[in-house]
From TrEMBL:
Family of this protein: Belongs to the GlnD family.
UniProt-annotated stretches for the region Uridylyltransferase: 1-299
HAMAP family for the chain: PII_uridylyl_transf (MF_00277)
Protein name as annotated: Bifunctional uridylyltransferase/uridylyl-removing enzyme
Biological function: Modifies, by uridylylation and deuridylylation, the PII regulatory proteins (GlnB and homologs), in response to the nitrogen status of the cell that GlnD senses through the glutamine level. Under low glutamine levels, catalyzes the conversion of the PII proteins and UTP to PII-UMP and PPi, while under higher glutamine levels, GlnD hydrolyzes PII-UMP to PII and UMP (deuridylylation). Thus, controls uridylylation state and activity of the PII proteins, and plays an important role in the regulation of nitrogen metabolism.
Domain of life assignment: Bacteria
Organism listed in the record: Micromonospora tulbaghiae
Domain called HD: residue spans: 415-516
Pfam families: GlnD_UR_UTase (PF08335), HD (PF01966)
Keyword Metal-binding: no
Keywords, sorted A to Z: Hydrolase, Magnesium, Multifunctional enzyme, Nucleotidyltransferase, Transferase
Sequence ranges assigned to domain ACT in this UniProt record: 586-663, 689-754
Reaction catalyzed: [protein-PII]-L-tyrosine + UTP = [protein-PII]-uridylyl-L-tyrosine + diphosphate; [protein-PII]-uridylyl-L-tyrosine + H2O = [protein-PII]-L-tyrosine + UMP + H(+)
GO molecular function annotation: nucleotidyltransferase activity
Amino acid sequence: MTSLTTATGPSEGQAAVVNGVVGVPGGIGVAARSARADALDAWLCRAFPERDGVALVAVGGLGRRQCAPYGDLDLVLLHAGVPGIDELAASLWYPIWDAGLRLDHSVRTVAEALSVAQDDVKVALGLLDARHVAGDPALTDQLSRTATDHWRRTAIRQLPGLREITAARWEAHGELAFLLEGDLKEAAGGLRDVGILRAIATAGVTDALRPAVHAAHRRLLDTRDALHQQVGRRVDRLVAQERDGVARLLGAEDGDALLRLVAGDARTVSHALDDAWRAADRLRSGRHRAAPGRPLRRPVARDVVEQDGELVLARTAIGARPDPSLSLRVAAAAAATRLPIARATCEWLAAYCPPLPAPWPPAARAALITLLGAGSGLVPAWETCDRYGLIDRWLPEWTRMRSLPQHNPVHRFTLDRHLVQTAYEASRHTRDVERPDLLLLGAFLHDIGKGLPGDHSTVGAPLAEAVAARIGLPPAEAALIGTLVRLHLLLPDVATRRDLSDPKTIAGVAERVGDTGTLELLHALVRADAAATGPAAWSGWKGRLIAELVSRVRTTLDTGVVPAPPAPDPALVAGPLPVVHLGEDRVSVAAADRRGLLATVAGCLALHRLEVISADAATVDGRALVECRVQPRYGLAPEPIALSADLRRAVGGDVSVIQRLRGRALAARSQGAAPRVVWHREAATDAVLLELRAADAAGLLYRVTCALDDAGAQVRAARISTLGGDVVDAFYLVGGWPSDEERARIEAAVLAAV
């Protein structure tokens, strides 16, 4: 049986055996890909049963001679109606499958292949890569020439359908330039989009394949080669754990440097495709003309007009000495009208628009705010300006932040896109604040300190304040921008890690915020930041906690009085014990006062796949009250009757439930970096705060509260904050500040439980 095994290692010298004689080389680069194509061609020629009226045609990567180390084979068995073609095909396909190769195959006449291409634009594009491998070359030549001619004649009609398919793919896979773990092939700006550019260029619509696109394409192919060899199998998604290895194979400094290179290449491809789509639109629609040979021009803003669906400069703007704010005003007009800026206009602005003075003139500052608040028009306008180097002229800090990876797993975007996306999300909340302009600017600058040593909020505050001053904000407003950056994590951190019923918590936040206007800006900024970060950064319970904190702080700022903590649920302080109430996201338990009740409730909830977000324990009239906010782990809601029954039995001291809890707890120890305990002396009114930072694991709260109970520490409240795979759990321990020996003993018990 003919066999073919692909290369498994990263070395250039490693090769797989083809039919026991010829190797398929590994390696990265144009030469390696060409060598793989030669080896596969030779192997397929030997495996091909020679017969008149039959040809073997390669499409896809082999057709383009761009074979990845673990790529598929895309083959067409072309025939002229010869008998026994199915048996001939089987004699060819089965050896390929036996060799362990993935195969996409078809058996067609020339007429059948062209008929399918007429109905399926993806097939039409595939035939543009058709290349003869074996058999009758006249058949391959007929198919290739006819398919190319047909595409050139029908491309304008087929491109809208192709664009819809492409948009759906982008929706599913995102934008490669901004994703931390993007798909090199399917994401926007990836290898699949280069194929579309090649098809548009073949149709003669525009010069889509410029030298910069060719270079970006080659580097993306090299990256995929390295990824295949690093992983040892076909994979197109550049995941975080493989980045450093791929970077080494490519000679890049590290994984972050590689990600920035990929982002730059993806941007080049995306921008070229945007231009190509617009050229196709103009060609297809035949825009109305004011007179023969004269395009219709419509003013849209000062010095900016629309022409053929794009924004260009008014003739007066080109003839006069350029205004330094012109590029910003063009960008703002593009974002507001949702119209693209013409390539020639961007090139002119990059070449002739003078730098902005410091401070900026009012027109430039107003244009920036208009741009940031333009909603869905912001991102494409910003990207176009960034493509031509205009952003760096406005904000020199942008060079450092462009394509900077964010290693926190909750983030989906690189830093630059995250900042722009946060401004976009903030535009949804401008009616909630008195100063929408400061909200937009604060949202755009909130993470400016990332990538620099130290806490990014602290480091970023003076940087943001300096940018705000350079833009031309008065000193008080520039200082407020610095405050927003410094405090942009305050509300979510306190809401998820501190006891909101503790007056000291509320008073501390009110003191740091200072006034209700700043509080409103921070609340809007928190929501925008979370939406721009990704789905893991926000949830209903987190939103409710932050809203509760904001409400209490606002009352304190308005009245000067910290609101009293809410009274216990009356249903829990009356009636026979135990009492169990299950709400939508709350579990409340009342039982006879005893040590370890909070641990028992937490363990029972973990047993039923419920994550505890916050927990409060109190004693009222001799009965212990435990109230927990919960959410289902993995989205699996528990069966309420079984949960209620287990809670009643557990708080009543049922030994069988306790044994189940201990068994599960021992089997679910957390993994990862070493846990850490941090003590806070003045964070609570009547308690000491112990903060545990550790890897997340089922039953962690149960184990830690048991350990605290065994160590003699009484927990009156707990707050659980999950950050990706880690948690920051805060425990309020009743009593004064422990001695050094007591702290060491409690800390050792907690760490042992983790």
